[in-house]
Amino acid sequence: xxxxxxxxxxxxxxxxxxxxxxxxxxxxxxxxxxxxxxxxxxxxxxxxxxxxxxxxxxxxxxxxxxxxxxxxxxxxxxxxxxxxxxxxxxxxxxxxxxxxxxxxxxxxxxxxxxxxxxxxxxxxxxxxxxxxxxxxxxxxxxxxxxxxxxxxxxxxxxxxxxxxxxxxxxxxxxxxxxxxxxxxxxxxxxxxxxxxxxxxxxxxxxxxxxxxxxxxxxxxxxxxxxxxxxxxxxxxxxxxxxxxxx
Length: 246
Fold this sequence. Notes:
alpha+beta, Beta Polymerase, domain 2, 5-stranded mixed β-sheet, two-stranded antiparallel ribbon, 7 helices, flat
């Protein structure tokens, strides 16, 4: 225990211990874990139905993550927010995280549209880094959603972050994440430019692979289109309205 010099009150040196000692924090993490389970189930159902209707699966893999107590505490303290269960639930949108890796870019929008059109899902925020990539080349579709969980005392919505990427987008993001934490790298600007170039190349590959799939489905050759992310609105009334599945 460490003593606060201003108040004289003894405080925990490692406040993340609250998540193991206090039932309120344990209950909160349990609720976020339930939101992850609900999302996984919804995605498995969509993937199964899509497979039946289109004879292929749009989802390559699903990865889940529950933010660690240490990471929660670090972010709450960095932002200057009160470390209480109520404050965590109010201020953090990424305690529960699900990453969906899709085969093709259009599958991302189709799945996102189908998910957000479900009447028990609440759309909180949408950030489309596919249509508008980050300056470093990062591409992904991010959704913040209110996910219903059904407990013994009733229903409650928990916020969760869903990230959609193609296999190529996820490959680039994983390597970029590892490389950017290397220390004392010379010519950092040149390396950043090279990574941006790789991201653009991967975007072109994603587009060409999607065109090849369409040619195979239609049994007809057509000239592959160049990747040109649309800048027009992809959303209407907080609902995903990306391209239809073929």
